[in-house]
Amino acid sequence: MNSAPVLEVQGLKTVFGTRDFAVHAVNDVSFSLREGELLGVVGESGSGKSVTMMSLLRLLPSPPARIESGRVMFEGQDLVRLDDASLREVRGRGIGFVFQDPMTSLNPVFTVGFQLMEPLRTHLGFDRKAARRRAAELLALVGIPSPEARLDDYPHQFSGGMRQRVMIAIALACNPKVLIADEPTTALDVTIQAQILELVKDLRHKLGMAVVWITHDLGVVAGIADRVMVMYGGQVVESAGVDALYENPTHPYTRALMATLPSLDGTRRDRLMTIAGQPPLLTAPPAACPFAPRCAHVHDRCRMANPPLIEVAPGHAAACWLAAPGEGVQNGV
Fold first, then answer.
1. pLDDT tens digit string along 108-118?
2. What is the pTM of this model?
């Protein structure tokens, strides 16, 4: 794996301004992504996963959204400061994006073929004949039968799983170096979900692209990710290699997420665990640990200052005061 990051995010902050208050949706998020790596991003709804990734390509409507600070480095360019024309060249061509709901992301009045051919003609300069040929190849690549004939069909003529495959084909059309997949299997049944996961794993190895996979499903992450980033309250609370995270979850929020999973070893539980309380209101930058009101290990320092990411092992960091050397969470407290 190439040692140089293909994507590097530093200190990203995104705010939604309203008439009465501001929502600090992304708070000082930093991470890097290496060539061929798959980064799993997990957390509850409202933790900032999707907003963070959409901020990278400035896909949020402005106003009300604005990137307050930070850098997003891709191929030597800071995407935060690129002009609109230059950024359009990066979208699709350098970084592909698979959105959550393919039925609302695909335009219902255009054929699937037209929507597949558009990025090929816009970014790569294909003529209509070459674009159609490549579009059929892309549908075949994502496992859609009779691809040439299906180019003339409309989105409503495809099943949910097939529409998601079309979205992946569009995202892959220009051979991007990075693919961001925002909960692409959430609305699909488990059989189709497994097919999509196998497809992405296969394409990742064939094309050598880096992938960011946003999900609620810790089981999915365990099966496909190289590294995991856990988000809560608009910030990264833990980051580690996938094996290290599952063997030694360090942040109390990560440990709580793990405890909500059903047992796979045959041990029977009467009830699944739940995380008491509600996610934080982000109407101000976090001045204390955002998980403190829901944490079983909270102490005075947690309510007074927001902890930085503290390295607990090589390549493993957690934003928790108890993660400091000699403190309790590492020892199972």
1. 999 999 999 99
2. 0.90
